[in-house]
Design a protein that fits this description.
Length: about 350
């Protein structure tokens, strides 16, 4: 059995995904599956030079004196779990988290905030996923990883930038992180208007999960104007077609907000890629203005990035709208005729606010 390292330590936290459901579905087989799981993890940790720190319930904790050894163990654990033959037909999926710090080591094991941080990072992931802290990624140097963003973790004051460790033979795509609050929208207040309740609530939830402060929600343009007057949000998000006529109430509300509260950014969400809407929106200026299709709402990164750019005084246009603007026929000499394909691509990115 390897000795627990001291000084700079990289923790490996393992936690079973959906353990309660597994135990309820197969109470007799579950203990054997967990025993099988721990044997595989223990063997891998020992082979990679790590030491078992704790194993309680569905959690397992190991410590390594070398971060690359910990990363190698994490990758190998996921490979072994993927290829394992499980007793009783139960397939166990495990989320892994790595964090490097300088914990205290006493008679009862490790203590300190680094232990808590490692646990929270592991708990943010999904079965089959390996999450690493920024400190660990630095220690890994050239490891393949995906930056997932900066998040606040339960009970911790300082936010953590979380990365996903990657390997060609392991899954790469997972749902958004669990039990976290993104800091993408930190300090940005938003008023939201859409007459479709489910869409409005869904957008609000996505924004809150990204750290934005949704100060008001409205189902029509008049209510939105009242909320903007009251809260002076950084950004007002508005649908183009709203009650009572479902034509251009949102655009008229956007113009009114620009006239009365020029410091409030405007982000229009629409089902329609209409260049005429974009021209009308931009005719009073391009600073702090955006136009995205509602299809983009499901892409949290695109939505959050658009809101932040508008709040900062930038502009954002949906690529579908830009494509129509750049490609639309013109009477007389087309000023775009002399542009190369690369120059057109750059122009399109500029139109999107890049």
């Amino acid at each position: 059995m390897n000795v627990l390292p001291t000084g700079t330590v990289t923790f490996l936290f393992a936690d079973v995904e959906g353990s309660t459901a597994l135990q309820s579905a197969a109470p007799a087989e579950y203990p054997n599956a967990i025993a099988h799981l721990r044997r595989m993890i223990r063997e891998t940790v020992s082979e990679k030079g790590g030491a078992e720190s704790d194993a309680v319930g569905d959690e397992y904790v190991a410590a390594f004196g070398d971060a690359p050894d910990a990363a190698g163990a994490a990758l190998e654990i996921q490979r072994r779990l993927r290829d394992a033959e499980w007793p009783g037909g139960i397939r166990v999926r495990v989320r892994l988290g790595l964090h490097t710090g300088s914990p205290a080591l006493g008679d009862e094991g490790y203590t300190g905030i680094d232990v808590v941080r490692a646990s929270r990072i592991a708990n943010a992931g999904h079965g089959g996923q390996i999450l690493v802290s920024a400190d660990t990624l630095v220690a890994l140097e050239d490891a393949a990883a995906r930056d997932l963003g900066e998040f606040r973790l339960q009970g911790l004051t300082d936010p953590e930038r979380i990365h996903q460790l990657l390997a060609d033979d392991l899954p790469r795509d997972f749902p958004p992180l669990r039990n976290t609050v993104s800091t993408l929208g930190a300090g940005v207040t938003v008023a939201l208007a859409d007459d479709t309740v489910l869409l409005r609530e869904g957008v609000a939830r996505l924004l809150v999960d990204s750290g934005f402060d949704v100060v008001a929600q409205s189902g029509n343009s008049e209510d939105l104007l009242r909320h903007v007057a009251m809260h002076k949000p950084a950004v007002a998000i508005v649908d183009i077609r709203m009650p009572p006529t479902h034509t251009d109430e949102g655009l008229r509300a956007a113009r009114a907000i620009r006239e009365r509260w020029p410091d409030v950014g405007i982000l229009v969400l629409s089902q329609f890629a209409r260049p005429s809407y974009a021209f009308e929106l931009l005719e009073t200026g391009t600073e702090g203005v955006g136009y995205l299709l509602k299809d983009r709402v499901s892409d949290l990164e695109t939505l959050a990035d658009g809101v932040r750019r508008v709040a900062a005084g930038g502009s954002v246009l949906d690529p579908s709208v830009v494509g129509q603007l750049v490609g639309r026929p013109r009477h007389g000499r087309d000023p775009l005729e002399g542009l190369t394909d690369r120059e057109r691509a750059v122009l399109a990115l500029m139109a999107e606010g890049r």
